[in-house]
Amino acid sequence: MYLLDIRNLSIEMTSPKGKRVKILDKVNLRVHAGEIHSVVGESGSGKSLLAKAILGFINPRWTVTADRLWWNGKDLLSLTPKQRRQVSGRDMAMIFQNPNSYLDPNSTVGEQLAEAIPAGDVRGTFLRRRVDRRTRVKRLLHRVGVRDHEGIMESYPFELSEGIAQKVSIAMAVAHRPKLLIADEPTTAMESSTRGQIYKLLARLSYLQDMSVLLITQDIGSIIPESQHVTMLYCGQLMESGPKDAILNNPRHPYTDSMIRMSMQRLDDLPHKSRLPTLPGSIPTLEHMPIGCRLGPRCPKARKECVQVPRVSKHEQHSFHCHFPLAEDDS
Amino acid sequence: MIRYTLRRFLLFLFTLWLLTIVTFSLGFLFPEFKHSDPTVGSYLAYLSAILHGDWGVSMSTGQDVTEQLWIHLGATIELSFLAMLLSLVVAIPLGILAAMNQRSMFDRWVVSAAMTGYSIPVFWLAQLLILLFAVHYDWFAITGQITPLYDIPTRTGAVLVDVMLSDSANASLAFWDAVNHMVLPVIVLAMMPLTMLIRIMRDATLDVLDKNYIKAARARGLSELKLMRRHALPNAMQPLIRQLGLQFSVLMTNALLTEVIFNRLGIGSWLVKSIYERDYPVLQSGLLVFASFILLINLLVELYHAWRYPQVRQELYAEY
């Protein structure tokens, strides 16, 4: 059984000009318990929206439809908003891009961490509870790799560096031992060494607590090395999904292929003054979504058939939505 | 924080010093009054007199100014603190409730009432209230602090405190009589800061409720009550506290008017009287104390703000 099983999730909104637009178009996503799953997509691909849909924080004016939105075998769409909030508050957690703006600027890190610890965990009588809470906060900080717990607990968020702030928000997120941690571009504005630390930490927590991580990022070159699965999104449509090695070494979708070549290519391998290997054109706006496969106008392999939405092709766990997939690499 | 406090305190002392120069120049700038010469020597004499508590003698009553000063200041402090307290107690919940039910009927009523209240001049509002509640209904007294029958000795000037200090047999009756005298002036005086504070509080709460840390805390499953109490309210109070010093200055200016209208004892009515009577020593020291008091309140508010919201301290120095 999957921890999270999403089939044909669509989110529809009314554009400023009154047109109905699908910002997510029949997206599938499956996450096993304890696995790290990367969702890759450029801006506007709907990747953050997907995360919000899982947590149940969608603008009430938008319509959410899905053939299946199952959490641990339970249908999330049949729950009332309040039950939904309970489930996501108990089992899921999320971390974000600017960790500092997600911390209350006027209370100390220690206070905020103490608040994140579930009341049921704290043991002892009234006076002992304070002490117990404090040791738990300390342990939580150690678990996310903060050694100087005394200093950090007394600090205010504005005194922390980006990396530490992200570690603190991870600590707050995992305090109630969620089953799924959604990380929405957690390292985008960070230095690469800090990013490495955060990724290592996420991988270790996932392993130690048997927690799934849904890592949302915009660059396939910077996905977490430990991730087992990768899903590619473009303009709200699913392009390709599969095990990480299959996606990276043998992409079947032209979009994935070009993303990989763009981000992994070393610039000095290119001939002098040659064009960079990018897709032509730019990401379409909401009002001007192409029909059929939304990559169509930019795809190097597009033909007449691409005005129809391609059906899914499957090869073991590897699935892709393309009329003209790249050849399978036998090696 | 110690460095910050020291810096603020030095600035406060410097401003006080500038104030003494201004009040000193009053002594020779008035055409018909040549109390002192514009020389350094006479300024130093004036300064040392002030520091030694020798503030001169009133030209109209012949009484010692220093003694009178404390009594009048006490009365004004009492009135303005009660007014500020009233406006805070009303404005904070109203502002929060309006923000939490944004665009509802309640919100619209609060916002338009605040706007209307802000536009009404204090002296006009005072007379309207007098007409309605004192003349028409005869609920409240309109002049003085207390009915003279009770014969409460003036010690601090703050009439409620005086009643409590006195050993009069009718202390509790006297207390309610003093309260009865105080209701209208306090309401009038509270009106201006009240309407401002409602709008500040509403905007601040709206702003804070939209912040990421509030959404994150809500997503973590924190109850709405805890969310408001622990995160939304303390952060929304920050702009309000920052504005408090300024609001207090406005309130003190209005206190001057209110005291005259309701014929109350206080530094405002004392000053106005001294202007009519060309009582320059009173005018000089009254101005000095009035301004220093506003400065002191501003200093205290600022220190509290910086102490409670450490982020502010950082913004005052360099970014790092």
Q: What is the strand and helix layout of this fold?
A:
The complex is a heterodimer of chains A (331) and B (320).
Chain A: E1 4-14, E2 20-31, E3 36-41, H1 47-55, E4 63-65, E5 68-71, E6 74-75, H2 81-91, E7 92-95, H3 109-116, H4 126-143, H5 149-154, H6 162-174, E8 180-184, H7 192-209, E9 212-217, E10 229-234, E11 237-243, H8 244-249, H9 254-264, E12 312-315, E13 318-321
Parallel strand pairs in A: 3-9, 3-10, 7-8, 8-9
Antiparallel strand pairs in A: 1-2, 1-4, 1-5, 5-6, 10-11, 11-13, 12-13
Helix pairs in contact in A: 3-6, 6-7
Chain B: H1 2-29, H2 40-51, H3 65-100, H4 105-119, H5 122-136, H6 159-165, H7 171-209, H8 212-219, H9 224-261, H10 267-276, H11 280-308, H12 310-316
Keywords:
heterodimer, A: 331 residues, alpha/beta, eight-stranded mixed beta sheet, five-stranded antiparallel beta sheet, 9 helices, globular, B: 320 residues, MetI-like fold, 76% helix, 0% strand
